[in-house]
Amino acid sequence: MTKQKTNFFWFRRDLRLDDNFGLFNALQSDFPIIPLFIFDEDILDHLPKDDARVTFIFDSLQKINDELQKNGSSILIKKGKPLEVWKSLLEEYDIQQVFFNKDYEPAAIKRDLAVSELLKQNHTEILSFKDHVIFEEQEVVKQDGLPYTVYTPYKNKWLEKYHFLGVEEHDTKPFLSKFAQNKFTFPELSEIGFERSSIKVQPHNLTQIANYKETRDFPALDSTSYLSPHLRFGTVSIRKLVNWANRKNQTFLSELIWREFFIQILFSFPKVVNHNFKSNYDGINWRNNEEDFKRWCTGTTGYPMVDAGMRQLNETGYMHNRVRMVTASFLCKHLLISWQWGEAYFAEKLLDFELASNVGNWQWAAGTGCDAAPYFRVFNPEIQQKKFDEKGEYIRRWIPEFDFGYNEPMVDHAFARDRAISVYKAGILK
């Protein structure tokens, strides 16, 4: 029996049909496109069965499938190790070309190299595209070709390049008939080995950030966009967002550039996943007390701003950005617990977990990263509370017992600050 000649588009962190650059290029090709998503067992095997992010991915794929069915097509869903899945697909189809958008995380790069080698051995052409960022890899670098390690000059160069080149959006709607007319069965979530989470990804809303510059530091106002999980999994286009922010909100645009800065750092310095960017901080003698860490995780430190943030995270998968800074600083500075512990906990809980930003922000808080807060900057959680939640609205939302005899702080701020500065000074290698 003759195999079906076809091309594939491999969805990964780009779960949308609209303005998807790799998909746009695939739909210009000569053969019908089979859209594919692989639930990667190398990732899934480490997640709880009710992981909210898996539920969100599943629902996003369902939306894509519903759209495809309007044009007589459907998405092929597979579960397994990507290399093994592609081996079976090569046996079933005469695959001419495989299209996908690039991923810049170390594990993803390793995965894509292995799959690309397999496809080449089977005379299949691989075409990869930039879609997750505006500028990738070596596109925004210093005059000597080296990567930026300080945000502000990176941002200035990024903006200069953006304003010179512009960013084009790509409408895929006219080409949706190019999908192969295959009727694949869409699985149940249970068939993938998961159950629906009670934690929901909120819909994004740009109207909520009209006054972003003035309101973004006040967690009780709920004036954030809820975009971060959508950016993480690509249900929105970074090109559309950047073009919108450039027209409407420069402060928000700066936050999107921070995201690309950290992606560039991760790509250029992959050691930051597990090691300090500043190696001279390797001598810090972290306390790493497990009981203290547990109190931080459960939001029972006695510092209301810290505890409210951790409880919000545990219950919803979200945490306000200002509160993230306070909770991270408290763990690293007040408790002298290494940033790797906090980074791993956030990675487990955050709906918007993205390796580059998570590692970058944790190392910023710990003082060990590029362009980080200085080691002697120790947030005072009580002052942060007075400045950004003066009436205690955010705190009472997450700590119902706040007005009925709340816990004493587990460590005195002045003592913790002096101890942190002393330990950092002693541990920073000359």
Radius of gyration: 23 Å
- What's the domain count? 3
Q: What overall form do the CA principal axes indicate?
A: globular
Q: Helical segment tally?
A: 18
Q: Enumerate the strands of the largest sheet in spatial order, edge to edge or round the barrel.
A: 3-2-1-4-5
How many DSSP E strands?
5
Distance between the termini: 69 Å
Highest CATH level, the class of the largest domain = Mainly Alpha
Binned, the helix content reads 40-55%
Structural class: alpha/beta
CATH superfamily of the largest domain: DNA Cyclobutane Dipyrimidine Photolyase, subunit A, domain 3
Task: Please name the CATH topology of the largest domain.
Answer: DNA Cyclobutane Dipyrimidine Photolyase, subunit A, domain 3
Tell me which CATH architecture of the largest domain applies here. Orthogonal Bundle
What order do the SSEs take from the amino end to the carboxyl end, as H and E?
Answer: EHEHHEHEHEHHHHHHHHHHHHH
Brief characterization of the structure:
The protein has 430 residues and is α/β, with parallel strands linked by helices.
Would you kindly provide a written description of the structure presented here, covering whatever features stand out?
This is Cryptochrome/photolyase family protein. Its cofactor is FAD; (6R)-5,10-methylene-5,6,7,8-tetrahydrofolate. Residues 5-134 form the Photolyase/cryptochrome alpha/beta domain. This protein is an alpha/beta fold and 430 residues long. It has three domains: 4-132, HUPs (Rossmann fold, 3-Layer(aba) Sandwich); 138-167 and 205-268, Serine Threonine Protein Phosphatase 5, Tetratricopeptide repeat, CATH 1.25.40; 279-427, DNA Cyclobutane Dipyrimidine Photolyase, subunit A, domain 3 (Orthogonal Bundle). The protein has helices spanning 21-26, 41-44, 52-69, 82-92, 106-121, 151-165, 212-215, 228-233, 238-248, 250-268, 290-298, 304-316, 321-334, 339-349, 355-366, 381-388, 393-398, 413-427; strands spanning 4-11, 33-40, 76-80, 93-101, 125-129. Strands 3-2-1-4-5 form a five-stranded parallel beta sheet. Helix 1 (21-26) links the parallel strand 1 and strand 2. Helix 9 crosses helix 10 (250-268) and helix 13 packs across helix 15 (355-366). The model has no long low-confidence stretch (mean pLDDT 95).
